[in-house]
Amino acid sequence: MRKIERPGFNVRTVFEQCISNMANQELRTELTDSLDKIERSEEDFNEKKETNEIYLIKRNVEISETANTDVLVKIYTERLVNKKNNARRYYDQILLSAPKGKCPLCNQRIADTLDHYLPKTLYPLLSVTPINLIPACSVCNKGKLIDYPLNSEQESLHPYYDNIENEEWLKCEVLEVNPIIFKYSVQSPDCWSELLKERVMNHFNSFKLNTLYVIHAIEEFANIKFQIEKLFNNGGQQLLKDHLSDCYESRKIIDRNSWQTAFYKALFDNDDFCRGNFIGNSY
């Protein structure tokens, strides 16, 4: 997961813009009068996220029978998302905060939508709250295994609050050399708390990152096989290891926890692979 800066605007700014051209004047007035409640919900989210107690936020809280969940969800889907609405610029600003355009949750696919950290249908007061909106790919947005946490350990990582980029934690293993089989996993640093270790593991599993990264690793190996086989045949094990080491170090400078970084480290660390036993592999 990649750390990104929080949006530079709050829910009051976004909400006011969303309802500014609402035709139903009575509903618009009620929503305007409820801005303090919406703002308190944002403050509650921030306070509880700072202490990993987001699971304590009450679900299914509405403003009133008229300003209910359906209305609040539509403010997101029909106003914030709507490209013809002036509020759309806040949606776009959040989306464009994705590092290099990539989803910060999987650190691989293109960010093409916004994900509600807490789902809008269960937490309607947070429907357009900027700190509850994360740039994401459609797969991570729709495919995560846990919709909302029931305890601190189940809280997936949040790009605005969590930073795990300073330690190397993503591990790739070569389980078999010929045919080659990869496995990705979390190797938690000793400096992490037990809670963080559990949360990173749950994030990794919830977004099915092993499956995603293995697919890319197999493709990468197929792309480089001719080259590294030639290196081994011309210079032996040491030349191959030097090349793999350079590939690892080069990618580590950019992102120490990318699937590519872990991939090249796994190849370098595997003696069976570096002795050339991958040659003849069908991939």
UniProtKB/TrEMBL annotation:
It comes from the Bacteria. The keyword Hydrolase applies. Keywords: Endonuclease, Hydrolase, Nuclease. The keyword Nuclease applies. One of its GO terms (molecular function) is endonuclease activity. This is HNH endonuclease. It comes from Larkinella bovis.
